[in-house]
Every structure is written in C-alpha cells, then in structure tokens.
Amino acid sequence: MESFTLHLLTKIIFGRGAEERVGEEVKKYSEKVLLHYGGGSIKKSGLYDRVVKSLREAGVEFVELGGVVPNPRLGLVRKGIDICRKGGIDFILAVGGGSVIDSAKAIASGVMYDGDVWDFFEKRGTVNVEKALPIGTILTISAAGSEMSPNMVITNEENGRKLSAGKHDSTRPVFSMLNPELTMTLPKFQIACGAVDMFAHIVERYFTNTENVSVTDEMCEGIFRAIIKNAIKAVTDPKDYEAMADLMWAGTIAHNGILGTGREEDWSSHYIEHELSAIYDIAHGAGLAAIVPAWMKYVYKQDVKRFAQYARNVFHIIEQDVEKAANRGIEETEKFFKSLGLETTLEGLKIGDEDFKKMSQLAVKSNTIGNFVKLKSEDIEKIYRLALK
Amino acid sequence: MESFTLHLLTKIIFGRGAEERVGEEVKKYSEKVLLHYGGGSIKKSGLYDRVVKSLREAGVEFVELGGVVPNPRLGLVRKGIDICRKGGIDFILAVGGGSVIDSAKAIASGVMYDGDVWDFFEKRGTVNVEKALPIGTILTISAAGSEMSPNMVITNEENGRKLSAGKHDSTRPVFSMLNPELTMTLPKFQIACGAVDMFAHIVERYFTNTENVSVTDEMCEGIFRAIIKNAIKAVTDPKDYEAMADLMWAGTIAHNGILGTGREEDWSSHYIEHELSAIYDIAHGAGLAAIVPAWMKYVYKQDVKRFAQYARNVFHIIEQDVEKAANRGIEETEKFFKSLGLETTLEGLKIGDEDFKKMSQLAVKSNTIGNFVKLKSEDIEKIYRLALK
C-alpha cells in the first residue's frame, strides 16, 4: 500500500426530504449565496421552490445563476465569478448534477484566484487551486460523484477543450444533500449514463500496479457489484426508491477518494472520453460505455491476473485459464453497459474515425496519460479504433 | 435504506513517517496543547521524542499527561480537564491506542461542559456532548477505530462502571496520523485483540433488520474478508508492513461510520463485553472473542438468511441449507478468533459464572439493549452462559 492523505470533509445528509434542511445548513457559512443550477427541470419539479423557501426561512439572501449545460461551459463560470465578486457573495449552492456542481467548484475557486480561472485547467500542475469559497450541493443525478470529491471538469467553448482540475480539498463541498427521490423522475438513459460513470470511477482506481491493497480491492469489488445490481433495477423501474438510494450512495463512495486510498490510480479512460464529449457533446457516461471496454482490451495484458480477479469477483466468472477469465470479464463489462440500454461502440454513438488523430494528440497533453499502462497518442488512437465497432 | 447524516471530518495522514508532520498539523489549531499518552512504550520506541521534536519545531507549547491505562479511568480524565482549564489549553493530542484516544475525547468534551464529565456516560441520552476541544491523534494500535469515530468508552474506578458516550461529531479527531510501522512492535496478543475488536465493529453494523442495504452489505463483507486475511498474516509476522497497513486501514473504516450508513446498528455484544472488562479488566478484544460467537448463537434465528449470507460471503461456505450455513458461519467466526491465538470461552479467560446476574442487570441499563434482537437482562445472562465454555 502507498502512503496517502484523505480528508473527506463533506457532511452528507441522505434520505427523503434531505434538501429541506438547506437553509439551516447554508446559514452556518453564509448569509449571501449564489444559487447555481441548470435548466428548468428543478423549477418544473418543485425543487427550486422548496430550496428558495428554505433559504428565505433561514434568512439567507441569494443571487441566481441558472443555465449550466452538460459539459459545463467556461463562459458561465466566468460570469459566476464576476457576480460573486461584485455582489459580495461568499458561498455557492449548487442544485443539480455533476455539471452544475463542477461549474460551482470552478466559480468557488476562481473567485479566490487573481488570474483567469481557466489557468487551473490549462496550466494544471503549474497553477493549482489553493483555496475556494465553500460550496454546498443538492444532488439531482447519481453519477459524477462530484458531491463529495474535489474534482471538476469544464469545457472551454472558445477552443473546444474539455479539461479537469481540482485535487485540493477546498473544492470538496462542505455539505451535500442526497435525496434519492429527486432522481426518480430522470429518464432511463440518464440513469444508465450515471451508472456507467460511477462504474468507470472505480475502474480508474481498481486497475493499478500497486500491490497489497486488499482493503481497497475488496471495497472496489463490492461497490462494482452493488452498482451492477442496483443500476439494472433502476433502469427497469426508476420509481424503485431502494435501488435509487443504493445507486446514489454507491456513486458518492465511488468517487470520494476512499476507494483509491493507498493505490496509484489510472484515469486514462476519462481523459480519452473527455476528448470525445468535448467534440461531440455526448453524455460523459455514454462515451465511457464505449471507451472503458476498449481501454480494457488494449491494456489487460499488463496484468492478466488482476483482470481475471475482476472477472471472478465482480462478474462471478468461474474459469481456470486466466487469459480466458480476463477476456470474459471485459465481455461482461460490455454486456452490463448494453443491458442498461447503452451503445458500447462509437459507431453506435454515430461517431466516425475522422477526429481520432486530433483527439489522440489532445488527450495526451504533455507526454503520456494513465498509470496502469502509460499511453502515448498512438496508443490512444488505437483505443479509439478498438471502440469504433 | 434508512436516512442518515455522515460527517467524516477527520483528516487521515497514512503511511511511513506520518507522525513527523504532527507539529505542522497541530499548529493549524493551537499553540498550546495537552500531550496525552499511556505508559512508557512511546518513550522506549522513540515516538515520544519524534513527537516532541516536531511540536517544538512548529513552536507549539505542550503540557504532558501520561498514564492512560487500558479501560481508561475517569480519574485521569478529570485531571486532564483540570489541567486544560487552568493552563489555557485548547487542543488535545493523543498518542496511543483506543484507550488514550477515548480518554482524550472525554477530556476534550469535559472541558467544554459545566457539569461533571461523567454525566455524558451515566446520563447518556439526557446529557449529550455538544462541543469539544479539537483532538488530534497519532495511532499506535490498530483496533478501536477511535481515530476517526466520535465514540468513547470510560471506566469509573469509583463504582466499576464502564460506559460509552459520544455520538457528536465534535469528538471526531480533526486529524489522525496512521503509520503502520508503529504497530509492528506490538505483542501478537494485542494485534489479535485489535483484529477481533475491528471485526466486532462490523458485526454490530452488519446484523440488522434494515432491508435493501446492498452497498453497505458489500462493504461490510469486504472489510470482514480483508480483516481475516490480514490479521492472520499480521499475527504470523508483525513485521509484515503490508499486512499491518491493510489491517490498520481496515480498523479505521470498520468504525468511522461509513459501514453503518442507512442501517439500524446493534451494539449488544459491545455492551455485554463492557461489563466483563469493567469487572475483570481484560482486553476488550479478548472479551469480544468469547462474547461475539455466543451472541451470534443466541440471536441467529432472528434472520437465518442473513447469517447464511454472512457464512457464504465472508467465509465462502457453500451450503444449500440456510440453517446449516448460518451455523457454519458462526463456527468459522470462532475458528478465526482461535486461529489468532485467542480464547473463545469465558472459562479460557479464567472467568466463572459468579457475576453473570449482576453483569446482565448492569448491561441492560434502562430497558433492553440491541436492535437486531432486543435483549433483556435474562437474555444477556443466557449469552454469558453460552460464552462460558
């Protein structure tokens, strides 16, 4: 096991009606907040009204900034920073899914930084987040895990780049309210994409060269199994509160960092997918459903035994031959994604090979990506090609 | 799944040399601390010198209070409260195992309370901890999980009562430093007792009547397996850093609350054991090794299927008949404790039946204990009797 530091500072309030305590929780930090959200769905569902009521009852003033879109845009982040600075706002309340929360994190850290917020993304490693306004969230989609993680992904609409940033604990939300009922009106496609995203967050941590990590191996495999079981129930019947609740909690645990403690993590599939959704504006989870199996096929020879362990412990594959077992595990991964109604090829997503070279070069950034296997741009191009059909 | 609130606010610093950062971490909270520890072992090992050096380099003043014993005493807690009040101390640094950390929590909360600190224990439910001085820990024994939990157990030497308190997040340490190397010089008996204690912390959460808890079931079963695997390695060779590291991290996760999220917890075995170690001053883990199997035998009929699931998923028992499977799981639990070199009967611990009635009455406190099965004093007496030989 490797050394690590873990600070899971986010207070989780989980269950029916959790969001009704939002005013009381916000009040502990601020009396003037930015209320950040996406489109009209929180207004249609009545969630917006409940949040506003709770804030008003607690005597918390707020300024609104809606309009966050999937693959959230830098332009709106800059606008949010400007509103906070001019309005003396010192808390960001994000009501939505991963995109809204990521946008809130970028605003919260951007407000505290003298330069342009895009520096955190473009000059990552050189310019890093060191402080941020406190953030609270009311989660409406189980997927990104952003509600308890410090990470954020923003798309720069000026140059089409979709980049990630944030390893600093100041961008972990100070509280997150998780009411599974809020996810019960989501379209099945979004539930499926969310399940693949959380599954992929564990893939990025599970496939490691670090040895002697049985505590986290056991937890990763357990959460993999719980996601499979509950995602299938959830897309079958989104009104199944218990399945939606288990899925919601699994999504948070998958990405809050506990499953990666003491292990070198990978993150190639995410980088490779980000280039896809930057150009084609597809859902992140939909892209991952094609990329993750292709990445697995390309890298499994690095540690066939680990892939055989994955097949055995996650998909209950009984197969003596490790090579065969490893391949069965990859097949089962693809089958699971398909069983949720998702495409697992780029062709299925109506994406051709015309941008493969460009995306492969953009994905590597400086040198290589990934740790399980370090990938160069030519490797990435092969992975896109493996994902094609 | 039930609704829950979880605030894992403790920053974990894990790995070789972790304790060398103690001055720097303490300095964020305080410039004058109580350095709280047990006997001479931290002086013999050189840990005391390293801690003192780090505090001095950071310019942190400290007052010392050593002498914490296993089953930590109320008298020393009261003395610590007095020292803090008179000395203007506003931070408690605990260097040791669960006893030292629990003693530190009692001091930290007692300082902030107008009445007598024993109220938190004797009048639990009526008088509750609401605030506490911040606590930091350097852990030297993997066992109690007190390094990330709010709970504490104190023994009142005036009346022989051993009681628990603390459900408030203010008694969760603000940081805990976990260096597995510090545990590599422990006697095998202590390592074994620690492993049983952490195993029992999961038993208390795993056996529940709450349904649809697959995420936490999976995590509980995974950490059970990881404890079994690594505890056996650890008692075989305490110099096995990797086993000691996995065991240390498992012990923290077992009791920080994440494994109990959304589930009703039980805690009977702990209450029943506390009466034993209050009278006989045995190690808590040694008592649990006899009590947990006896408790299981007494209650398993409440949910034979859950016990069969436990047997299958924790001990890999393949057995169609659920009754037989459940019993095999209990047998395997006992075998595991024995394989660590521990006694699993009270007779083996040289404890007879003379105090059973008294302990049974004291254990129930007001009415009943436990949630999986609510136990009255007559039930508890039967459990002591089942544990006898």
What's the architecture of the largest domain in chain A in CATH terms?
Answer: Up-down Bundle
Low-confidence stretches of chain A: none
Amount of beta strand of chain A: 5-15%
The CATH superfamily of the largest domain in chain A is known as Dehydroquinate synthase-like - alpha domain
Order of helices and strands of chain A: EEHEHHEHEHHEEEEHHHHHHHHH
| Largest protein interface, residues of each chain | A-B, 41 and 41 residues
Oligomer: homodimer
- Structural class call of chain A reads alpha/beta
Précis, in short:
Two copies of one chain form a homodimer. Chain A has 389 residues and is of the alpha/beta class. Chain A has helices at residues 22-27, 41-44, 47-57, 74-87, 98-111, 119-122, 188-206, 214-236, 241-255, 268-280, 284-299, 304-315, 322-339, 356-364, 377-388, and strands at 4-7, 11-14, 32-37, 61-65, 92-96, 135-139, 152-156, 161-165, 175-178.
